[in-house]
Structures are given as structure tokens and as C-alpha cells.
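Example record

Each entry pairs one chain with its bound ligand, zinc ion.
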Amino acid sequence: MTRDDLKRDVWQAIDRRRDEIIALGEQIRRHPELGFKEFKTSRIVEDTLAKLGLSPRSGLALTGVRADLAGRAGDGPTFALLGELDALVVAGHPDADPATGAAHACGHNAQIAGLLGAAMGLIDARAAAHLAGRLVFFAVPAEEYGDIEWRVSQARAGKLEFLGGKPELLRLGHFDDVDLAMMIHTTARPEDGKAGVPGSNNGCIVKTVRYVGRAAHAGGAPWMGVNALYAAQIALAAINAIRETFRDEDTIRVHPIITHGGSQVNVIPGDVRLETYVRGRSVEAILDANVKVDRALRAGALALGATVEIETLPGYMPMHCDATMAAHFKQTMTRLVGEEHYRQIGHRTGSTDMGDLSQVMPVLHPYIGGARGSGHGADFEIADTALAYVAPAKALAAMAIDMLADGAAGAREVVGARPPMTREHYLSFQRGIARREVYEA
Ligand SMILES: [Zn+2]
Ligand SMILES: [Zn+2]
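C-alpha cells for the complex follow.
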């Protein structure tokens, strides 16, 4: 059987499950959960994979679910298809969970629908008989790097070390036997077309910052206080001032928020907290910008005579997409949506923990459309359920065939090149980022 014949059978099987795949995507959209807390969503994944006859393992890095499907046409590499489980807090999103504020404003619900749809099609069409090596269906937690105070508390309690899902799964060894991986992210950007592959993405490091001043009566005796909010404001202004020193080609992004700005209005703020990322195109550029951001943060404390505690946490590594995998994906999407709707996307300035995987194995992180509004915005919504939920299922399944059919010739070609880092080097690099500084003016 040729790869094209096998794809046709699998796509027909996916078409027969079309309503079920769309219903899964919509069900998850209506029950958004934050990273490392995706218990209901991971239960849906586990139940669906078990119904297909697979033996899913759950609770990986708290909420991840993994099921393996062995190819029956010989040995070969292990190829993981991923879907991200988490939502994020977006004020004013109409689907937001009233208790947590979580909303699927990044379209990860479509990733899970696509992942499960791919498993359905491949299993219904008995594709494993024609595949070598092994396929992994892996629903992964916590791609969005937020809710940081809670995650830090989980880390202190020994339940996490890294605060993102894929780094934590890497640490725990759940990718040790995986040779290459891909996922498909939904896009709402018209310029991405119906499908496209970015060349690369920014990486980031993450900072939590606390200014400690001295509380005092804001009306009666403000001179007794040390205003931690003003210290933070000066730091934010200093960060804005250093932006002109960032080189365009480094695509630095620094975007701090105040997470706690004071206790009540008649008290001079004695405790103010910030969070920020420092993003950039290369590790060197990120570390260089980070030195400047730290200097700006200290400046606020210096001006007011406050203390600043700067906690720097490992974030996500820059991502590079594998060109051979991208070429296969383009062929598939040309068949599914037409070549005129396919885009080669350049460098993206967001960050993803798929970047971490890309340091240790070949990965592909393409986009498929079907959403509208702005990503992470209150107006983000799924507009075309067939494109958002069903097309990714077909594309993932086709990539499984392209990589693992014909004795896994496709995957063998991809895994031939040595990745930038070994897994041990990756873990020690990320651990080396973690640092805590207390600067007293
Ligand atoms: Zn996102
Ligand atoms: Zn996302």
C-alpha cells in the first residue's frame, strides 16, 4: 500500500468521526482549565484513547496523558504527536470559567481534538500494520507559562521542578524514548493562511520581582514610608528606556505586569510584585537583555531606598522547526487546503516549550487556521470547526504515515542530524538559569 493510499483510508476514517472530533473540541472549549490543573481535560483524553483500545498512562507531570501505538511493520524511530491541554486567564473572554478565569483563548482545545482525531483515524484504518517504529499520542500540560506564584508553590512542595509542561516531562524522562515530535497550533492570524510553518520562535526566561518598602499612613505620615509602588514604577520606566538598546535582529520582548500594587489606598505600599518574561531569538540575546533588565529593576530600589528581590526562572528555549518535516507537512496541506493557502512563516516572537523539545530532538510546530480574533484576546474564537478541529487530525495522521510508513524512511532521514543539546546538557542549562538576588539600596 502506498503512503497516499494509506492517507486516503485514514482520512476517510477521520471523516466518519468528524462530528465526534468537533464535539470533543467544543466540549474542551467549554471546560477550560489552567496548566497543571487540566484534570477534566486529561480525563477526556484518557477515556477516548482507552476506548480506541490503547493503554494510556495519565498523571505525567501532574496531568499529562500518553498512549503508545506500536507499528507492526518493523523497528524504527518513535514519533510523538502532541496536543496541549491548557487554557489561560483572559479577562472578559465569554467562555471564561467563572471560578478560575481560564479560557481557551489560544485554541489548545483544537490541538486535543486534532490529536484524538488522528488517533481515531489511524486506529480505525488499521494503519499500524503499515508503520514501522512507534507512534506516541501525548496530551501535554501547561504550555502557557502563567499562574506563576501557584506553580512556584508547587515547586517548593516538591510536586514540580520546571514550571512548564514539556520541560517537566523532559526532566521526568517521559520523552527519553521519543526521537522526533510534532504538534499543530491553531492560528487566528489571517497572514498565516490556512496552514503554515514558522522557521523559528523566540525563547524566554521568566522573572518574579518583589519590591519591599515600608508601609505608612498615606495621609498622616507618608514621609515615614518607603513607597514600593514608586520603586516598581521607576523600574518599569527604566526597562522602557533600555528598549532602544535591543537589536532588531534579536527580537527582544520584555513585557512586565504588576501582580500586586499595594494593600489599600490609605497605606503607602510596602510590598509590590511584578512578573515579566525576557524573550529573544537566541540564548545569548536573552541573557544579554536579562542583565539590562536586572539593572533596571535595581534602579527602582536604589531611587526609593527600597529592597528588591529578583527571582529568575528558566523559561522556554528558542525553537527551530525541522525543514524535512516541514516539507512533508507542506505537501499534505497542499492536498488538504490548497497550496495558495499555505504560508512559509518566518520568525515568531512568542515562545513555546516546543522550543525545549527542539533543543533535544527534531520537531515541527506548524499552524492551521480556523480561529478568529486575537490570540490570548477576549475575542479569540473558533470560527471554522472543520479547519480548526478536523484538518489537524488529518495532518497529524498524514505526518505519522510520512514518517513511519515505508520502514520509517521519513523518520530515519529526520533523526539523522544531531540535535543542538543532549538531554543532560538541556537540563543542566535550564537549572543554571535559576537564580535569586536580593538588592538592598
Ligand atoms: Zn498561547
Ligand atoms: Zn498556544
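The first strand starts at residue 57 and ends at 60.
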